Structures are given as structure tokens and as C-alpha cells.
Amino acid sequence: MKLRTLAACSLAAGLLSIVNAQDTTVTQLGSSCGNPVPNLAITTAGIGQTAYICIDSEFPGDPTTMEGHAIVFASLAPPLPYPVFPPSFPGFGDCTVYVDLANLRFVEALTLDAQGDICIPFPLANDPLLIGQVINLQARVWSAGGPFEGGDHLSNGVQVVIGTDGTHGEGRTPGFWKQTYHFKNLFPTPYSYWPAPFTPNTLFGDVFDDAFPGLTLLQVLNLRGGGLSALGRHTVAALLNAASPNVNSALSAAQVITLFNGTVPGSASNIEILKNYFESLNELEGGF
């Protein structure tokens, strides 16, 4: 399976305090519980910015049944230790709950795609009262045979400390990566600007879900126009930025792949939002 990722005003109502400005941090909590396990990931974003919530699983979504349906919950970080449902479920392991069951907030109900994945944009309100809040999130994915209620599988937890900014780092644009002298540099080796294992001849479909059948990464970089083509250009640039040791990218290569695969196919508005997100990171400049 290929690699595949907050709070609105309503979530934070009554749970906020004013603190000094800080950067947003995201920390994974523990592991998932299920067979196979669903994974939850969230990108960093500050107030007034857009975070992405992503679920990566092996439970294909079926809009006509409950199969592959997910719910994301959030709460203020509960007191430690996190509760574990005893005894361990045979074949599933310990099922740890990372949210406060007494004070849950519903974030989103989702139907996973045919690969069992999804990513959705989640705008954060531009409200300084959000800064400093510590929010825990966890997803439950329903598929027959899960450890809870005959079908629920629990994801790992994610802890978000909300700050003023979540977009730091360096980036290079599609125009940088498609320049011939950047991938046919003879010193010290061919393709020296492109980070391994990627080359201009790598098929897009060997890295991502194949939204551009038969096209290489370089060919996608050279696509013209908006919509999916524009997202493709900025996705490849984001991937190369993330994989390059010479660029301090805000994302990992795995996160770039997760975001694309969880968004495409999808609505035109979500495609445009993700394109704008990748574009903002690619235009940070720096590196090399």
C-alpha cells in the first residue's frame, strides 16, 4: 500500500485562554488499534491557516454501507495516563484512547476513498484565543470485525498545540525543478539536483495514486493550466523539496504523498485548496 493526513471556533468555544504567540506543533501519540490499523495524521497550521486531516487505512469506503466510514473526534488533552481498554483484544493489541471521553467534540464524519484513505482541508479560525490550546484528536474507522461494537478500529492519537504559524521551512518552485540544468548536472553525477530515489523519468503513478497515467514526474512538472494539472505541478515540486537534503521542507515526502492521495480524486475546491497549500510552501524559497 502506498504511503498516504483544527479546531474551528465551535471546537474551541469555552475551552480557550490567551497565551503568548508560538508556532503550531503536532505530535503523534501512540499507535493504532485494529487489524489492519488505521492511521491519523495532521499537518501543522496556525490560526487563520488551513490544516489537513488525513486518514490512511486499508478499509475502502462504501457510501451505501457503513464500511470505510470514519469519525474524527477531538478534546482538550485529557489527564495522563491515557486509558487502555483491558484486556488486550486478541489480534488487535491494546486499544488506547487519547481523547477525553467525557468532553468529546465531533470534528468530521468521512467516507474513505476506494483505497481506504482521505485528506480534507480544515481551516483554523483567525482567533488569537486559540493560541496555546492543546487539542488531542483520534479517529474511529468502521469495518466489520473491529474490536469495538463489532466494527470500530481506533487510530493513533495526534496532539496539536495551536500557534500563530505552521508554515516554516524552505521550498523551490516547479520552475526550478523542471530546468534541464537542474537534472542533467554532470557534477558529480547525472540528476544530482533531484533527490534519490526520484528521477525525471520516474512515473508519477509509481509514487502517487495514478492521476496522470503514463506521465513521468518531469512531464507532470511541465503540464500547463489550472485544476488538477496545477496541483500535479506543485505536488511534484513539493515531493522533491521534501526529499531533498538541500531543502528544509515543512513536509516529509510521505506527507506529500498522503495529502495528494487523500485529496485526488476529489472536489475541484479541495484540489484548488491543496494546490494553494503546496504552492505556498514551494514559494518559501531557500535551499541549495
Descriptive overview:
- By secondary structure, the chain is an alpha+beta fold.
- It has 2 domains: 9-161, Immunoglobulin-like, CATH 2.60.40; 174-282, no CATH class.
- The chain is built from 7 helices and 10 strands.
- The chain has a 5-stranded antiparallel beta sheet with strand order 1-10-9-4-7, with no helix packed on it. Strands 2-3-8 form a 3-stranded antiparallel beta sheet, covered by helices on one side.
- α5 runs antiparallel to α6 (253-263) and α5 packs parallel to α7 (268-282).
- The longest helix has 17 residues, at 227-243.
- The protein is globular, with a radius of gyration of 20 Å.
- The two termini are 32 Å apart.
- The model is unreliable at 1-21 (pLDDT under 50).
List the helices and strands and how they pair.
Elements (H helix, E strand, L loop, with lengths): L8 H4 L12 E5 L9 E4 L7 E7 L12 E8 L7 E6 L3 E4 L8 E7 L5 E7 L10 E9 L9 E10 L12 H4 L2 H4 L33 H5 L5 H17 L9 H11 L4 H15 L6
Antiparallel strand pairs: 1-10, 2-3, 3-8, 4-7, 4-9, 5-6, 9-10
Helix pairs in contact: 5-6, 5-7
